[in-house]
Specification:
Elements: E1 10-14, H1 18-28, E2 33-37, H2 40-47, E3 54-58, H3 66-74, E4 84-88, H4 93-102, E5 106-109, H5 114-139, H6 141-169, H7 177-195, H8 199-203, H9 207-213, H10 226-229, H11 237-244, H12 246-259, H13 266-281, H14 302-317, H15 328-337, H16 345-364
Parallel strand pairs: 1-2, 1-3, 3-4, 4-5
Length: 365
C-alpha cells in the first residue's frame, strides 16, 4: 500500500467565531489533519510554513474578510492552486456568485450539517486528487500515447463523474439521477439509429463522449444555494428565476474548462461541445417558451432535445423535495401530451416506442 495514501489530508478552517472553529474541528478531526485559524491575517502566517490540501474560509470576518483573503490567495502563484470553500450564514446569491467568480470552488452554509460538510469535502478532495493524476498522465503522453490513452480517458470520465456526483449529492433524494439519464439517452440513441432518425447527425458523434458529457447537464447547480435547491415546497418567482440560471452557470463552467485546454485533442473538444449544448439547452421547449435562450423547434440542438425527454421523465418518476414519484404510465402520458409544445414530436414518437425500457431502468435504479 502507498504510504502517502495513509496520510490524512491537511485542512485549514479559517473563522473568527470560536464556536464555529470548535464545531468544525470536532466534525473533521476524526478524518483529517485539521488546523483552526481565527483570521485571514494569521492564515498567511501559517501558509509561510505549510500548505494545506483545502481551505475552509469564512466570508464575514473582521480585518481581512473572506473575499479579500481569496483575492490575495489567487494573486499568489504559491497559493493560487489551493482549493477554497467559502463558509457563510448569508442567503445572498449575489454574494455567493461573487465568491465563486473570485475562485472559490463551493459554498457551505453555516451552521454546518456534519454529514453534508464531510461529504462535500470528501468529493472536492477526490476531484483535486484525480485532476492532479490526470495531468500527470497527460505530461507523460509523448512517450506513452498508445499505452496510456485508455487510462487517461477513464480518468477523465472519473473526474467528470465525481464532479457530477458532487452536484447530485447536494440534492440527496435525486440519487442515481445521473446514471439513469445516461441509460435513457442510450436507449434513445439506439432507437434513433434503428429508425434512421437524424442518422447523419448522430453518426458524426462519438457516442461514448456524448453519453459521458450528459453527466454535466446540471453542473451549474453547484452555483445554486442550498435553501433553493433543497426547498421542500414550491419555489417563489424570485427563487425560480435563480434556479433557472443553473443552465447559464453550467455553460460558463464548461467554457472555463475549455479555456484551460488551449490546444486540446479532438476528443476533448467533442466532449465539451456536447456538454455545453446539453447544459445550456435541456430546458428549452419546442414551442419557444423554454429557457434560457427561448429557442424553438429544430433550432434547439439535438443534444438538448434528447436530454429534455430523459430529464423530465426521470423527474416525474422520482422522489423530489416538492413531490412524490408518479407511476410510469402517468409520466409517459404527461410527456406525450407535451408533443409539439415542450418536446420534439419525432423524438416523442420514438420515446413512446421504447418507454417500457425507460420503465425498467427506473425500476432497477
Amino acid at each position: 500500500m502507498n504510504a502517502k495514501a495513509l496520510v490524512p489530508a491537511k485542512i485549514v478552517l479559517v473563522d473568527d467565531d470560536v464556536t464555529s472553529l470548535a464545531l468544525g474541528k470536532s466534525i473533521l478531526a476524526p478524518k483529517y489533519d485539521i488546523i483552526t485559524i481565527p483570521s485571514g491575517e494569521k492564515l498567511f502566517v501559517f501558509l509561510e510554513k505549510a500548505q494545506p490540501d483545502l481551505i475552509l474560509l469564512d466570508v464575514e470576518m473582521p480585518g481581512m474578510n473572506g473575499y479579500e483573503v481569496l483575492k490575495k490567495l489567487k494573486a499568489s502563484p504559491k497559493y493560487a492552486g489551493i482549493p477554497v470553500i467559502f463558509l457563510t450564514s448569508r442567503a445572498d446569491p449575489a454574494s455567493e456568485l461573487e465568491g465563486l467568480k473570485l475562485g472559490a470552488i463551493d459554498y457551505i452554509s453555516k451552521p454546518f450539517s456534519p454529514p453534508l460538510l464531510l461529504k462535500r469535502i470528501e468529493l472536492h478532495l477526490l476531484v483535486e486528487t484525480q485532476t492532479k493524476r490526470l495531468w500527470e498522465f497527460n505530461n507523460n503522453l509523448q512517450h506513452l500515447v498508445k499505452e496510456k490513452t485508455k487510462a487517461v480517458l477513464d480518468m477523465q470520465n472519473s473526474v467528470v463523474k465525481t464532479v457530477a456526483n458532487l452536484v447530485e449529492y447536494r440534492d440527496e433524494v435525486t440519487g442515481g439521477h445521473i446514471e439513469r439519464v445516461h441509460a435513457y439517452l442510450e436507449i434513445l440513441l439506439d432507437v434513433m439509429a434503428a429508425q434512421k432518425l437524424h442518422l447523419g447527425e448522430i453518426e458524426g458523434w462519438d457516442r461514448d463522449f456524448f453519453l459521458q458529457s450528459s453527466q454535466l447537464h446540471d453542473v451549474g447547480k453547484i452555483f445554486i444555494r442550498d435553501s433553493i435547491l433543497l426547498k421542500p415546497g414550491k419555489l417563489t418567482g424570485e427563487e425560480l428565476s435563480v434556479m433557472k440560471k443553473h443552465t447559464v452557470f453550467g455553460v460558463q463552467i464548461i467554457e472555463e474548462i475549455e479555456k484551460s485546454i488551449p490546444i486540446g485533442p479532438r476528443s476533448a473538444s467533442s466532449f465539451l461541445t456536447h456538454a455545453k449544448l446539453i447544459a445550456g439547452t435541456h430546458h428549452e421547449r419546442w414551442d419557444g417558451t423554454g429557457y434560457p435562450y427561448g429557442l424553438a423547434g429544430a433550432t434547439i440542438p439535438l443534444e438538448g432535445r434528447l436530454m429534455a425527454i430523459a430529464d423530465v421523465y426521470d423527474a416525474l418518476v422520482s422522489v423530489r423535495p416538492y413531490k412524490a414519484p408518479l407511476p410510469h404510465e402517468q409520466a409517459v402520458q404527461i410527456i406525450a401530451e407535451g408533443t409539439g409544445t415542450q418536446f420534439d414530436p419525432d423524438l416523442i414518437g420514438l420515446f413512446c416506442l421504447v418507454s417500457d425500457k425507460f420503465k425498467r431502468v427506473a425500476q432497477k435504479n
